[in-house]
Amino acid sequence: MDCFSYRDGRLHCEEVPAEELAGRYGTPLYVYSRETFLAHFERFQAAFAGLDPLICYSVKCCPNVHICRLLAERGSGFDVVSGGELYRVLQAGADPERIVFAGVGKTEREICEAIEAGVGLLNVESESEMEQLAGLAAEMHAVVPAALRFNPDVDPRTHAYTTTGRRETKFGVDFEQAAAVFERFGRTPSLRLHAIHLHIGSPVHDVQAYGAGIQRGLELVEALRQSGHEIDTIDIGGGYGAHYRGAEAPPAAEYARAIVPLLEGRGLKVILEPGRAIAANAGVLLTRVLHVKQAGAKRFVIVDAAMTDLIRPALYGAYHFLWPTQAGAWVPRSRDEQQPFPDLVRCDVVGPVCESGDFLAQDRALPPVQRGELLAVFTAGAYGMSMSSQYNSRPRAAEVLVEGAAGRLIRRRETYDDLLAAERVERD
Question: Does domain 34-279 have CATH number 3.20.20.10?
């Protein structure tokens, strides 16, 4: 699953003790395992090899330029959803032709940046956007490779906030609209509209939901081909799961067993956009206990990480396993909430932010902890640092990448000066 393990009661990232990294770089601290990143990426490569797909790492889940460079060197393409993400991956050395640019509300500037960069595919989400893209491409004397995102109206049975393939979401167009968009723009000189894109949500553990979505996509491809459109590419999106509790997410090979037979022999170039499945288990968030207090029947463990560092529990009610890095006799048997120890203490693990919703875990049974102890929040590599903020004027955390017995800083901790840097403007 990952390269974070307890040895003699102490948590290690690959070969480096977590306490050593926290002592060197401070807390809160994101720690990533290079080996885990590459192992998960290579599993997707192996599982889907029969399709020879373009695997585009979903940058939004963990966008650090050093991580992107690491994956680019292994042949990864990139799924980007903003001009900033495009800039990041280009700085990381990505091949522009291996970049797909999605997003429901691209600005004119972002579209022009994508055209200028020569991205391999622009995933378009509405008829209005297609019209805008065609006009901008004509003005720039370019022919832009484009895909239309359509909604297969499949329920992935995940959180409502991360369900994206139903008819009523803001993303893409429905089947009937898709055919009309191709009829209007399929022969536009400034566009090469040759692909469809679909993405049903995240995280999706039901492999049959992918099958249902792809079947709908293939129906659309066939209908478009019968209408005279040359469709040679299908982007089936991402959303593949990760292990938060233990082994709840299907492995890449299981997704592939459901997907590959559907797409073999179709004359289609296949694009995948995994993010969480590559990054989530590759990272932990280290945080130091500031105080422990009792308030009536409730026990609070107050730590120096907050919803500004990891918002997923507050935003989605998401579960992250959390445990002391110096476990002693309490070495966890799994990442599940229930641990087989009789002397655990139920508590809320909360941050310093002035919001009652600022928590990392609620009513969680943990070993007794004291001020100064270090805790690890697991499966934090995806949508952790990327969703962090400076709310309450809190400088954002540092990030460290570990390779074997060495760890290196890949993002320094922000300073108070960083908080004000963009505000240091001269008066009009």
Answer: yes
